[in-house]
Design goal:
alpha/beta, about 300 residues, Rossmann fold, elongated, 12 helices, 2 domains, single chain
């Protein structure tokens, strides 16, 4: 089978070497499309591809239509909103992610963001400590649990909301369960977001929730910018000069937010969650192994378009 490694933002050389080794050892052919400049380059590369490994690359309906032999797409990472799942399903193409491979990298970033805002972005002004503060985790999956565990090691208390987990599962993961989104925001000095961008979650976090947060609270977003209602967030920050917001994905109105709120807001220059050498290698190798298992035995364990 021909596997196309299509990465506008390439994997580390070590990861590429490992991916190729895993695939070729299993008898597959590997083609690489790295640092491509336009979506048209991807369209030209996919017609004979039977499997596709991507990162944040966009697999649109147009790309899927241009790939008549394609059987599987693996997104090396947790999020998969860059793949048109409906179009893939229509063509019988399996789409997978690689859950858990980037989790520690994202969790460490979330905690680093909390420290950064607690210390006023490392300016000389007097900051505060995380110890003794309460962390709320919105979605207690692979990343959320790690954030909670690391926060407890710093002396924070942790509560979590996840509609897909029972209270017993959340407690077993080291957090106190809460039973409504309003309760989560109202009780959290720091609120770490880990929900996907889905129709039900897009723009779901705005004025009504943020304005409920305790005095001096900080909202931390290492998920997707689409889950934030930016106008509602702006309104809450305007009315509550004690609130802070830090994000791994710059808002559309980031320049205006910086102008209005100064050190109370911060966005990383690009999405940094999975940008560690370890996560880069882990996700790439996992993607390659999942493709090998799929063609060898039909394994679809991490399929996301069921």
């Amino acid at each position: 089978m021909k596997v196309l490694l299509a990465t506008q933002k390439p994997f580390a050389a070590k990861a590429v070497e490992g991916i190729c080794a895993i695939l070729t050892e299993a008898g597959h052919e590997v083609a690489k499309l790295e640092k491509y400049e336009a979506q048209e380059d991807l369209l030209k590369a996919v017609p004979d591809a039977e499997a596709l490994i991507i990162r944040s690359d966009k697999v649109t309906r147009e790309v899927i239509a241009a790939a008549p032999k394609l059987k599987i797409v693996v997104r090396a990472g947790a999020g998969y909103d860059n793949v048109d799942l409906e179009a893939a399903t229509e063509k019988g193409i399996v789409v997978m992610n690689t859950p858990g491979q980037n989790s520690n990298a994202v969790a460490e970033l979330a905690l680093g963001m909390m420290v950064y805002m607690a210390r006023n972005q490392f300016t000389p002004a007097t900051g505060s400590e995380l110890m003794g503060k309460k962390l709320g985790v919105q979605a207690y999956g692979n990343v959320g649990r790690l954030v909670g565990q690391k926060a407890k090691a710093l002396g924070m208390s942790v509560c979590a909301l996840d509609p897909f987990l029972s209270d017993e599962q959340i407690v077993a993961g080291g957090a106190e369960p809460v039973h409504s989104i309003e309760e989560l925001y109202a009780s959290s000095d720091y609120l770490s977001i880990h929900i996907p961008a889905l129709p039900a979650t897009i723009k779901s976090i705005g004025y009504a929730l943020v304005s409920k947060m305790p005095k001096g609270a900080t909202l931390v977003n290492t998920a997707r910018k689409e889950v934030i209602d930016e106008e509602g967030l702006m309104k809450a920050l305007e009315e509550r000069p004690d609130l802070k917001y830090i994000t791994d994905v710059a808002p559309d109105n980031y320049a205006l937010m910086q102008e209005k709120f100064g050190l109370r807001v911060f966005a990383t220059p690009k999405k940094m969650g999975a940008q560690t050498a370890e996560a880069n290698v882990n996700a790439g190798l996992a993607a390659a192994r999942q493709i090998v298992d799929f063609f060898a035995s039909g394994c679809t364990r991490f399929q996301v378009n069921k």
